[in-house]
Amino acid sequence: MKLISTRNSDNEQSASFAIENGIAKDKGLFSPVDLKVFTKEEIEGFVDLDYQQLATKILVELLDDFTEEEVKSCVYSAYTKEKFDGDIAPVKELGEKLYCLELWHGKTFAFKDIALSILPYLLTISMKKQKQDKTALILVATSGDTGKAALEGFKDVENTKILVFYPQEGVSDIQKLQMQTQEGDNVFVCGINGNFDDAQTAVKQIFTDENIKEKIKKENYFFSSANSINYGRLAPQIVYYFSSYLDLLKNGKIKSGEKINFVVPTGNFGDILAGFYAKKMGLPINKLICASNKNNVLTDFILNGVYDKDRYFFKTNSPSMDIIISSNLERLLFEIAEYDSDLINTYMDELEKNKKYRVKAIIKDKIRDQIYPGFAYERETREAILACRTKYKYVIDTHTAVAYYVYGEYKKKTGDKTTTVIVSTASPYKFSEDVLSAISLKDYSEKTELEKINKLALMSKTNPPKTLTELLDKKPIYTKTINKEEISDIVLNQL
């Protein structure tokens, strides 16, 4: 395996270089090529491995300049009982060949924990390999979940400082409180007047601003990233696609080599892209189903081959997916275009100049062969939460509900009876008001967060995460809000 930039196919780098730098100097994203392809027999041989053992097997193939011992050290430091409540990525059976992959058993109750628990360890080793003696200045733009997970992962990690920017009015109350109350000597959190795309664009511009890079260099810092543009975020996500398949195989739900579907709620396209790479590595995947909310730029693109970011931005009840500029789509295009970086540059230049681009028909058709698109409005999201609880006695959050709805529509249109796994990206307790309103058909907006959580626990017959209820007693530390144009000044001031 090797890593090359999407903007320059001659820019080949090691995994440690990609993880340390986050983004290429040419503004491209480091993408894996010549991936290891596991045989059916090799995958069968993984069936009795626990998550840590499996992660080691997969990541050794994805981190070209890491030794097996280095990978093992990172894995076993990240995936501990202290950091994850019970199983790391359990699969729950709903019924009718339908399953739910719960990725929210980490400390922040969102799927980002799985990658961001291991990224600090990967970065630490990468810095040593690259003989980096400066402090990593980690910039994060978040639509809600990445911010807290990154803060928790990098809290008090030696030779790092992390700055997180989130849309002030674009996250849930719980998400905001999780970030604002973050403790740690090397952390900083700030809201922005704008949406996630505003924050993400500003952060990416800072990464490639040579003037700013020179200034932080003089202060003995260098830029790195914890967003999904960083290969160190992407690689660990591939593991849970394998683990969920193996769980079904081990429990006799599927036969060896049998293909399954994955339904993935996504905004920035990183989670579903990990599934795409898992398929390239030999995992028997039939269809990847891309589930978007009302900000359905991905649905339109996959259907029509036109990516148009000049559209209205909606704030929805699935805020972590309120994204219009899906950064990781660039990596998929690079794969489908057979690593034609000139073509990728053409598309990205068009997006910057004209706010949209149209891909070749052959590329559009190849994407459609791999990925089925769909989206849900807010009303449909609420209805999906109620329908899932009514039919399966299982409570899902708003993002998982988008996937649940899209899968239902997919099945109606295609009649596909393939065993399917819905990727559940967050605990329903992170969005208790919307979940409660959906399953009870009542308004809970006037209730306190604790009242909402307790009511949801009663109705769902589950126990709320202890750390989440304890969070409600904490006072915010970071309450500053700025305009997006001020982000670079804030970054420099933090030095």
How would you explain this protein's 3D organization?
With 495 residues, this protein is α/β, with parallel strands linked by helices. The chain is built from 22 helices and 16 strands. It is globular, with a radius of gyration of 21 Å. 52% of the residues are buried. The mean pLDDT is 95.
Short description:
The chain is α/β, with parallel strands linked by helices.
Descriptive terms for the model:
6-stranded mixed β-sheet, 46% helix, 495 residues, alpha/beta
Produce the secondary structure layout.
Blueprint (H helix, E strand, L loop, with lengths): L1 E4 L2 E6 L1 H7 L8 E4 L6 H5 L6 H12 L5 H11 L12 E5 L2 E5 L9 H5 L2 H11 L5 E7 L3 H10 L5 E8 L5 H8 L6 E7 L2 H12 L2 H9 L2 E5 L5 H20 L9 E6 L4 H11 L4 E8 L4 H8 L1 E3 L20 H8 L4 H14 L1 E3 L2 H10 E5 L2 H15 L5 H17 L5 E5 L7 H9 L8 H12 L5 H6 L9 E3 L3 H7 L2
Parallel strand pairs: 5-15, 6-7, 6-9, 7-8, 8-16, 10-11, 10-15, 11-14
Antiparallel strand pairs: 1-2, 1-3, 4-5, 12-13
Helix pairs in contact: 1-6, 3-4, 3-11, 4-6, 11-12, 17-18, 17-19, 19-20
Largest sheet: 6 strands, mixed
Mean pLDDT over the residues: 95
Q: Calculate Rg over CA atoms.
A: 21 Å
The rough form would be described as globular
Gap from first CA to last CA: 37 Å
Query: What class, by secondary structure content?
Result: alpha/beta
- The helix content is 40-55%
What is the number of helices?
Answer: 22
**Percent of residues in β-strands:** 15-25%
Placed side by side, the strands forming the largest sheet appear as 4-5-15-10-11-14
Number of distinct beta strands: 16
| Stretches with pLDDT under 50, minimum 5 residues | none
